[in-house]
Amino acid sequence: MRRxxxxxxxxxxxxxxxxxxxxxxxxxxxxxVEVGNREQVFHIGNGAEPxxxxxxxxxTVTEANILTALFEGLVIxxxxxxxxxxxxxxxxxxxxxxxxxxxxxxxGLKWSNGDPLTSEDFLYSFRRIVxxxxxxxxxxxxxxxxxxxxxxxxxxxxxxxxxxxxxDPRTFEITLKERAPFWLSIIALNPFxxxxxxxxxxxxxxxxxxxxxxxxxxxxxxGPFVLKEWRVNDSLTIEKNPSYWDAARIKLHAVxxxxxxxxxxxxxxxxxxxxxxxxxxxxxxxxxYRQNIRPCCTPTRPGPRSSCSSTSPKLRSTxxxxxxxxxxxxxASRSCATCGATAAAxxxxxxxxxxxPIRVMPRxxxxxxxxxxxxxxxxxxxx
Length: 383
What we know:
The protein is of the alpha+beta class and 383 residues long. Helix content is 23%, strand content 15%. The protein has helices at 2-26, 32-39, 61-70, 119-129, 148-152, 183-186, 197-203, 263-271, 283-291; strands at 41-45, 75-77, 84-86, 89-94, 100-105, 164-168, 171-175, 225-231, 235-240, 254-258, 278-281, 306-308.
């Protein structure tokens, strides 16, 4: 009996040493969303795997979602997908006949490696779009520009005849064949993002698709984020660009795009805390989400593919998962509904145009208004 008691006394210290390990195993493991909330890393579902990150040849929404974060054109689209806001250009003028657009670039613009960005970069990039040997499907967007279509179709070989001019380092001019009131919306798209000339020439990418210049460590961009890591069929990570002109307003440290091409799988990942935002809500789940959210925006013409994203000012997700929703977007919708409430903590359900597929409202119940000059969406959201 005494021998047994001594044995128990010897085991007692060992048991106390094991207690921390036993209890640590019982703790709930943090989800990527919870880790992201703490580290300011945003996780988002992004459909299929992107083919390439060349802004002048990319033709899918999957690629455009990423390129919007990496690059910035002369102008950008506001959170409603329609309002034109200043981008790399701080202002612009349009001639009386509506054919000549003169853009004035911001002072001190830089590429992510610190190189200065000037109007010559836009001239070089815009001419690349219409190069016949590049054979970009996106060249069609330049058809409104004087001489662009003729050059792209091989009917002209004179680059100077195309209506792109860079009179000085901070001025860029575009001359159209005819008046086009929608032109500013066109040049906000990824075909008209600038490309880093030195990178393309070093890696032979000017007239070639799928060049190495679009890979991590090689891709120089001018937007709020830079490409950090690309793990094919797993994730693509971008991180804050300290050289971006408006870097002080970029609160997120990184954004992780997850290629999930199955709507049901992506929705499960969203509910399971793997994603802060999803653009793929199966139709069978829409009614359940609507019943569990008190909307402050009314969805219009809901379609087969909708989207949900985080609404908390600090992206802090709570349970049930419905508290993480801020909008349900229909790809068929072309206008954003008017807000009917002002509670900042309330989740929103709002139909927004397909032109801004992944941009989360800057604040709850903000259906498209934005300060002039402030970049809209998740990348400028106060965290």
